[in-house]
Known about the structure:
Low-confidence stretches: 1-29, 131-138
Number of domains: 2
Structural class: alpha/beta
CATH class of the largest domain: Alpha Beta
Mean pLDDT: 87
Radius of gyration: 20 Å
CATH architecture of the largest domain: 3-Layer(aba) Sandwich
CATH topology of the largest domain: Rossmann fold
Order of helices and strands: HEHEHEHEHHEHEHEHEH
Number of strands: 8
Shape: globular
Strand order of the largest sheet: 2-1-3-4
Oligomer: single chain
Amino acid sequence: MRRSGLVAIGRLAMGAAMAVSFSACGPGASPGPTDRLSVVTTSSVFADLVSEVGGELVSVVSLVPRNADVHTFEPSPQDVRRVAEAGLIVMNGLGLDDWLAELVENAAADGTPVVRLAEAVPASELIEGGDEDEPTGVGGPNPHLWLAVPYAIRYVDRIEAALAEVAPANAPAYAEGAEAYRTQLRDLDTWARGQFGAIPEGNRRIVTLHDAFPYFAREYGLQVVGVAVEAPGQEPSAAQIAALIEAIRGAGVRAILSEAQFPPTVVERLAAETDATVVADLYTDSLGDPPVTSYVGLVEWDVERIVEALR
């Protein structure tokens, strides 16, 4: 986020904090069994996870709207008020949504818990973004763990624990919701493995617009041959394009993946020079229009579209 945006948020937060009157289920008190806990998340994906665990006992708002990019999001005055009124704040961490830290510092009530879902994963399991000296890589751990369903299950575990800590009277209901959802996610994971398992290993090579799929690829047996841009919104150089075209041809890449919220210009340019199929309507950081209105729907959509291209 631009520094000017952060300064403006700081000023807005001062006004919002003065105007907000906290209810009994705000950060200063433990909600009772009939209260709805106000939860703010950065991404619509995480909002769906929280809703599945908390059910009718939570009121969840995603700051980043559906079909929007969480990497480059800039909060509005309304978002300042939402953070100020939250009883729990849920984000990913690892650089994906660090713009929230300034907003929390300026607007959140003292003691409001902030859960960084990805930062509980052991460092040994994290995938580095790449070598900073390489044109298609960036340093630091890749934050997109939830696209691999086993990591989404871990996110559910953390969400359950955080909800129960804030609202202990509702802990049994959260536990029931979380276990039912984990069962659904385990079935989803089994299905995804079966879909990719039917594809010959030599056909499971992909190139992606940006580095959103490393955990997904590791979990489901895909090989990421290359990445077009370091971060969404950037444009690769002519040399980067040439290198990727050579890599696609050399590895026999079947599919070039991009997401619905980004223009397909770059991936279409790569496909025009190769035999690879473009899949430009995937979802990663955000939910979208039907049928991609839930995390389960997102995974089903992405798996089906990628498998179709790899065949």
